[in-house]
TrEMBL record:
Homododecamer. This is 3-dehydroquinate dehydratase. It holds the Pfam family DHquinase_II. PROSITE patterns: DEHYDROQUINASE_II. The active site is at 23 (proton acceptor), 101 (proton donor).
Length: 147
């Protein structure tokens, strides 16, 4: 059974109410439920975790390594542009990960256009809204089938 961890960074708990013109009307619970349904249908184990605290996300990545998590989907949110610590945790545990963003960070303010994660990620999905998470999970599940 493929084990996948989905990490949501700061302020993603406000989805559905925070800047819906940028992030869309879908709330985080709906995104997580769609992913859970997709994982269940594929016979995979999926866990989700959201935190506004950088240290909590770092600790969850380190814990994932001890739990046998095989892949991570991460939307680092604002930490995309600031967190060397979270990047170091991901590269340190060597669990393949896909970076997801609801909005197209390349089309946003200049400070949002740099990611500390993209060069280490297996892939990056940005600007497709909530379906980006589902596409990331699909890619992980297909890769697991090939192995």
């Amino acid at each position: 059974m493929t084990r996948v961890l989905v990490l949501h960074g700061p302020n993603l708990n406000l989805l559905g109410q925070r800047e819906p013109d940028v992030y869309g009307p879908t709330d985080l619970a709906t995104i997580d439920q769609r992913l859970a349904d997709q994982a269940k249908a594929a016979g995979a184990h999926l866990e989700t975790f959201q935190s506004n605290a950088e240290h909590a996300l770092v600790e969850r990545v380190q814990e994932a390594s001890r739990q046998g998590v095989e892949a991570i989907i991460i939307n680092p949110a604002a930490f995309t542009h600031t967190s060397v610590a979270l990047r170091d945790a991901l590269t340190g545990v060597a669990i393949p990960f896909i970076e997801v963003h609801l909005s197209n960070i390349q089309a946003r303010e200049p400070f949002r256009q740099h990611s500390y994660f993209s060069d280490a990620a297996r892939g990056v999905i940005a600007g497709l809204g909530p379906i980006g998470y589902e596409l990331a999970l699909q890619a992980i599940l297909q890769a697991a089938e090939r192995n």
